[in-house]
Design brief:
The chain is α/β, with parallel strands linked by helices. The protein has 31 helices and 35 strands. The chain has a 7-stranded mixed beta sheet with strand order 5-4-16-15-14-6-7, sandwiched between helices. Helix 2 packs across helix 21 (about 475-490), helix 3 (about 110-125) packs parallel to helix 16 and helix 9 (about 220-235) runs antiparallel to helix 12 (about 260-270). Bound molecules: iron/sulfur cluster. The site of iron/sulfur cluster has 14 residues, from helix 1 and helix 7.
Length: about 950
C-alpha cells in the first residue's frame, strides 16, 4: 500500500486528495487535510473517485479504421502515429493548416494543453485549437478582459470568510461546487449576519440556503444588475472616489442605467421591485461583497455582458481587490484555468497573449524559435463542428472530451463528425458517445495515472500525481501529443530540429514557465520542486517571490492600457430564443448533485445514481396537472432542433411555464431509437464576444409521449460487472423507441433498464434482454399473457431477487425493485412476485432516493424521522444527524436534509389526526425494512393471485 497526494479531477474547486493504492490498483481516496482548497473535505463525487478505476470500459490499445464503414482494428502505437502524421500532413498540404483542428478539454493537465497548443500553433500553423472550456468559462474570460483588462479571478477562497455579503449568481454551488459551499455555510454559521443573496430562476439547494432568493426569469441577469446599479446610484451608495480614481467609462453606463428603474426591471425579471431594492441595498451597505458566479451567467448568448454587468456593480461600489470583496467566477472543470493560461483556446495564446496582436504573436514566435504564428482567427468549439459539417475542416483531433454528448444541437455536431475525413479521439474511456465516430482511438491515461499540474478557480496550481502505472498501452496525453508532433515535423518540416524534445511533464512545465515572464500569469518563481516542497501555489508567482499572490489588483492598478478598470455599457438583451405559442416552455439546464458533465467517469459508479436514479425533466406541478401528466409519465421535450424523450417529474423549484433538464444525460444512459441525449434540444447561438453557446436556455414544447407499452428489467450481473452489462445492453437499447439503462446499488452493483414503445415489441428483443439478465435459466418464475403482450420473469437466489423483467404492465415494479435493491428476503413470496398490481408486502416501503450518499441514508428514512421530531429546525437537523448520521461526512446532502425535514414537518403540522386516523398505511410511515427484515406475505387480492 502506498499513498500519493494529487487533486480531484472533477470541478474547479480543485480539492487536494490523497490516493491510496496497492500495486497497480487504486483502493481509496481521502481529502488532503493540508490542501488550502478543501482542508481535507471532499464531496460525494470526490469521495468515490477510487471507484471509477477498473478496466471495464477503458481504452487500452490504439485502434484504427482504415476506410469508411470498416471496423476499427488494433494497431501498434508506432503504426498508428505514423499513419496519423501522414494523413495530417497530406490534408495540411492539400487544404492548408486550417483544414485541421484540435478540440481539447478542461480536464487535461496544463502540460498536456501546452503540448497540444504548441503542436497546433507552432507546427501546424493554425489557431483551430479550442477546448470544452468554451462551453463553460469563455464568457467569464471575456468579462474579465472587458472590465479588468486580463483574464483571472481577482480574489481567492479565503474571501468567503471575510465577506459581509455573498452574492451567488447563476450557480447552484451547493451541488456544483459542494466543498466551496461548505465554506459558505461555515462562514454563515460563524457570522450569522453575513447576507447571502442567490440569483437563480430555480429555487435550488443554494437558493434555499440564502437570506434572499431572486428568482428572476431566465436570461434577465443584465437587467437585474443594471437595476441594482440604478438603486445604488439613486441611494448614493456608489463609491465615487474609487470610480474617479480607478475606473473609466462610468458616464456612458450611468446614462444607460438611468432607464433601469426598479419598476422596469421588475417587469423584465418577473420579480418584485422591493426585491431588487433590497438586494441592491444589501450590496451597497456591506463592507465587503463577494460575488460568486458560474454557468448561469456564462452559458448565454449575452454571457459576456452578464459577467460585465455584475463586475460593473463591484467597480461602482469599490468592492474589489481587498479581503472579502470582488467578482469571482467559479470554474466548472478541474483545469479550465490551466487551459486559459497556456492558450488552449482559439482566441488566447500562451500566458494570456492575444493571437490577434502582431506583437504578441511575434514575441511568442521568437520565444519558440519559429518564424511566425498564424494571425487567422481560429474556430471555437461550436464553429469547429460547423466547419466540419460544411467540409472546411477535414480532420479533427479530440482529446479527453465528448462532443457527441456535450455540445448543443447534437444533430449538427454528429453530422460534422460523420462528414469529417478523419476523427481522432484520444480518450481514457471506450464508453463515451464520441467513440463511435472515431476513425482512430488513442488510449490515454487518466486520474490517478497522470503527472502534471492543474489550476483551480482561485488561480491555485496543484501538482497532480500518478498513484498507479498506466493500464494496458495507455499513454499520457502530453506524451501522445509530442510523439505525434515529432512525426508530423518530419513530414512538414524535414531537417528542422524538433520543437518537441520533451521527455517528461516537468520539462514542458519549465518551458511554459519561462514564457510567462513579465506576463500577468508570471510563474517564473514556481517549479515542481517548490510545489513538492511547499504545496500548491497561486499565480502570479514571479521569480524572487516566496509565495503566490492571493489577490490581484490590490494597488487598484488594473491590466488595461490606462491601468483603470473599465465599466462596460451593458444593455439588456432578451434570450436568443423566446418562448412562443409553438414552444411555450422556458427550458433551463444544470447539474445534478452526484454527476459530473457527460458522466464518462461518474457514470461508472452505481452509488452516484442513488440520488437521481433516472433521467427526468422537472416541471411545475401545475404544468403537469394542466397536461394530465403524473410524475414518471414519459414526455417528449421538443425544440426547433430536436427531441429528447424522458420521464417527467414534479418540482416546485420552478415557476409554471419553466422546465429543467440536467445537463449530464447523453445517449449512453438516455437511449432509444435516434436518441441524442439532452443536447438534442439545446441552442447553438453564440455570444458575440466569448463565442460561448446558450446552453442554459431555449424554448421547448412538452407533451405526453404516446408510448404506452413498458418494460422494466433489473438484475445483478453474474460476474459482478455492472458496467460490462450496461455496455452489452447498448445495442438493444437502440431498438426501443425509448430506453434508459443505469447502474444501481452500493455493496452490490446491478442494472436497471426501462424501455417503452407504442405497442409490444418483438419477442426476440425481450428474449435478448432476458438472456443478458439470465432470466432464461431454469427456476426462473414466469408468467406470460401473449394475447395482452404481458410477460414477467423473476429469478431468485438464496431467497432474494437476482433479476426480474416486467413487460406490458409494470405496476408491481416499485416494490419488486425495492426487494431487489434492498436485497430483502423474498423467497417466501413465491409466485406472488409475479402478481401485477398486488399491494407491496408488509415491511417493504420505498426508500426514495439516497440523500446521504456517504452513509446510505434514504429520503423516506429522513422524512419519517423528521415527522416524529419536534423543536426548531436546527434541533431537528441535529436529531436527524445523531439518529441516522446523515450529513455527517461530506456534507453535500445537508441542504437537502434540511429541506426534507422542513417539508416533513410542514406536512405533519398540516395534519390534524394521526396517520392511522388519516387512513394511511402504517407501512408508509414505517422506516424501510433493512436487509434481513422478514417480509410478510400479503393477503391475496387480485384475480391473478393463483
Ligand atoms: Fe472534487 Fe467535489 Fe472538490 Fe469539486 S468539490 S474538486 S468535485 S471533491
Amino acid at each position: 500500500m502506498h499513498s500519493v497526494k494529487s487533486a480531484c479531477c472533477y470541478c474547479g474547486v480543485g480539492c487536494g486528495v490523497v490516493i491510496d493504492a496497492e500495486a497497480d490498483r487504486i483502493v481509496g481516496v481521502r481529502g488532503d487535510p493540508e490542501h488550502p482548497a478543501n482542508h481535507g473535505r471532499l464531496c460525494t463525487k470526490g469521495q468515490t473517485l477510487h471507484l471509477t478505476g477498473g478496466r471495464t470500459g477503458r481504452l487500452l490499445r490504439p485502434e484504427v479504421r482504415m476506410g469508411r464503414g470498416e471496423p476499427r482494428r488494433r494497431a501498434s502505437w508506432d503504426a498508428t502515429l505514423d499513419h496519423l502524421a501522414e494523413r495530417f500532413a497530406r490534408i495540411i498540404r492539400e487544404h492548408g493548416p486550417d483544414a485541421v483542428a484540435f478540440y481539447l478539454s478542461g480536464q487535461l493537465l496544463t502540460e498536456d494543453y501546452y503540448a497540444f497548443n504548441k503542436l497546433a500553433r507552432a507546427l501546424v500553423g493554425t489557431n483551430n485549437i479550442d477546448s470544452n472550456s468554451r462551453l463553460c468559462m469563455s464568457s467569464a474570460v471575456a468579462g474579465y478582459r472587458a472590465t479588468l483588462g486580463a483574464d483571472g479571478p481577482p480574489g481567492c477562497y479565503e474571501d468567503i470568510e471575510h465577506a459581509d455579503c455573498i452574492l451567488i449568481a447563476g450557480s447552484n454551488a451547493a451541488w456544483a461546487h459542494p466543498v466551496l459551499f461548505r465554506r459558505i455555510e461555515d462562514a454563515k454559521r460563524a457570522r450569522p449576519d453575513v447576507r447571502v443573496i442567490v440569483i437563480d430562476p430555480r429555487r435550488t439547494a443554494t437558493a434555499e440556503f440564502a437570506d434572499q432568493h431572486l428568482a428572476i426569469l431566465p436570461g434577465t441577469d443584465v437587467a437585474l444588475f443594471n437595476g441594482m446599479l440604478h438603486v445604488l446610484m439613486w441611494d448614493e451608495m456608489t463609491d465615487t472616489a474609487f470610480i474617479g480614481a480607478h475606473t473609466e467609462g462610468y458616464a456612458a453606463l450611468k446614462a444607460t442605467v438611468r432607464e433601469y428603474t426598479p419598476k422596469f426591471v421588475a417587469e423584465l425579471c418577473g420579480i418584485g421591485e422591493d426585491e431588487i431594492i433590497a438586494a441592491a441595498r444589501s450590496f451597497g451597505r456591506a463592507k465587503s461583497v463577494l460575488s460568486l458566479y458560474c454557468m448561469g451567467l456564462n452559458q448565454s448568448s449575452h454571457g459576456t455582458d452578464k459577467n460585465a454587468a455584475l463586475i460593473n456593480l463591484h467597480l461602482a461600489t469599490g468592492q474589489i481587490a481587498r479581503p472579502g470583496a470582488g467578482p469571482f467566477s467559479l470554474t466548472g472543470q478541474p483545469n479550465a484555468m490551466g487551459g486559459r493560461e497556456v492558450g488552449a483556446m482559439a482566441n488566447v495564446l500562451v500566458a494570456h497573449r492575444d493571437p490577434s496582436s502582431d506583437s504578441d504573436r511575434a514575441e511568442l514566435a521568437g520565444l519558440w524559435g519559429i518564424e511566425s504564428l498564424s494571425g487567422r482567427p481560429g474556430r471555437t468549439a461550436v464553429e469547429m463542428f460547423e466547419a466540419m459539417r460544411s467540409g472546411e475542416i477535414k480532420a479533427v483531433w479530440i482529446a479527453c472530451t465528448n462532443p457527441a454528448q456535450s455540445l448543443p444541437a447534437q444533430s449538427n455536431v454528429r453530422a460534422g463528425l460523420e462528414r469529417a475525413e478523419l476523427v481522432v479521439l484520444q480518450e481514457a474511456f471506450s464508453t463515451t458517445e464520441t467513440v463511435r465516430y472515431a476513425d482512430v482511438l488513442l488510449p490515454a491515461t487518466t486520474w490517478g495515472e497522470k503527472e502534471g499540474t492543474a489550476t483551480n478557480s482561485e488561480r491555485r496550481i496543484t501538482r497532480v500525481r500518478a498513484a498507479v502505472p498506466a493500464p494496458g498501452e495507455a499513454r499520457a496525453d502530453w506524451q501522445i501529443a509530442t510523439d505525434f508532433a515529432r512525426r508530423l515535423e518530419t513530414q512538414l518540416k524535414p531537417g528542422r530540429s524538433t520543437l518537441f524534445a520533451f521527455d517528461s511533464p516537468r520539462e514542458i512545465f519549465d518551458e511554459y514557465r519561462a514564457l510567462t515572464r513579465n506576463r500577468d500569469t508570471d510563474i517564473t518563481g514556481l517549479s515542481y520542486a517548490l510545489l513538492d516542497e511547499r504545496g500548491s501555489q497561486q499565480w502570479p508567482l514571479p521569480e524572487g517571490i516566496e509565495t503566490g499572490r492571493a489577490r490581484l489588483y490590490t494597488d487598484f492598478r488594473f491590466a488595461t492600457p490606462s491601468r483603470r478598470a473599465r465599466f462596460v455599457n451593458t444593455a439588456y438583451c432578451a434570450v436568443a430564443e423566446k418562448p412562443d405559442a409553438r414552444y411555450p416552455f422556458r427550458l433551463t439546464t444544470g447539474r445534478l448533485r452526484d454527476q459530473w458533465h457527460g458522466m464518462s467517469r461518474t457514470g461508472r459508479v452505481a452509488r452516484l445514481f442513488g440520488h437521481t436514479p433516472e433521467p427526468r425533466v422537472a416541471l411545475h406541478p401545475s404544468d403537469l396537472a394542466r397536461r394530465s401528466l403524473q410524475p414518471g409519465d414519459l414526455v417528449h421535450v421538443d425544440s426547433r432542433r430536436g427531441r429528447v424523450t424522458l420521464a417527467a417529474e414534479s418540482s416546485e423549484e420552478l415557476r409554471p411555464g419553466q422546465a429543467f433538464l440536467p445537463m449530464h444525460w447523453g445517449s449512453r444512459f438516455l437511449s432509444g431509437a435516434g436518441a441524442l441525449g439532452i443536447n438534442a434540444v439545446t441552442l447553438p447561438v453564440l455570444d458575440s464576444a466569448s463565442r460561448q453557446p446558450e446552453l442554459k436556455h431555449c424554448a421547448v414544447r412538452i407533451g405526453r409521449a404516446a408510448l404506452p407499452w413498458r418494460l422494466v428489467a433489473f438484475g445483478y450481473p453474474a460476474d459482478g460487472d455492472a458496467l460490462a452489462l450496461i455496455e452489452s445492453m447498448q445495442p438493444l437499447l437502440e431498438r426501443f423507441p425509448f430506453a434508459s439503462c443505469v447502474p444501481v446499488g452500493r455493496d452490490r452493483e446491478g442494472v436497471v433498464l426501462r424501455a417503452a414503445a407504442e405497442s409490444p415489441v418483438e419477442a426476440a428483443l425481450i428474449a435478448a434482454v432476458d438472456e443478458l439478465l439470465a432470466l432464461t435459466r431454469t427456476g426462473t418464475l414466469r408468467y406470460d399473457d401473449s394475447r395482452r403482450g404481458i410477460g414477467r420473469r423473476v429469478r431468485l437466489a438464496n431467497g432474494r431477487i437476482e433479476a426480474a423483467r416486467l413487460s406490458g404492465e409494470t405496476p408491481a415494479e416499485g416494490w419488486l425493485k425495492e426487494l431487489f435493491e434492498q436485497q430483502l428476503a423474498a423467497g417466501e413470496l413465491g409466485r406472488f412476485l409475479l402478481l401485477p398490481g398486488a399491494r407491496p408486502p408488509a415491511g417493504v416501503a420505498p426508500r426514495g432516493r439516497v440523500v446521504c450518499n456517504c452513509l446510505n441514508v434514504g429520503e423516506t428514512e429522513i422524512a419519517a424521522l423528521a415527522r416524529r421530531c419536534s423543536g426548531p429546525p436546527d434541533a431537528i437537523f441535529a436529531e436527524l444527524q445523531s439518529a441516522l448520521r446523515c450529513g455527517t461526512e461530506c456534507g453535500s446532502c445537508v441542504p437537502e436534509i434540511r429541506r426534507i425535514a422542513a417539508g416533513a414537518r410542514r406536512l405533519q403540522a398540516e395534519r390534524t389526526d394521526s396517520p392511522e386516523q388519516q387512513g394511511l398505511s402504517p407501512a408508509a410511515e414505517a422506516l424501510p425494512a433493512r436487509r434481513d427484515s422478514p417480509v410478510a406475505m400479503p393477503r391475496r387480492e387480485s384475480r391473478a393471485a393463483q
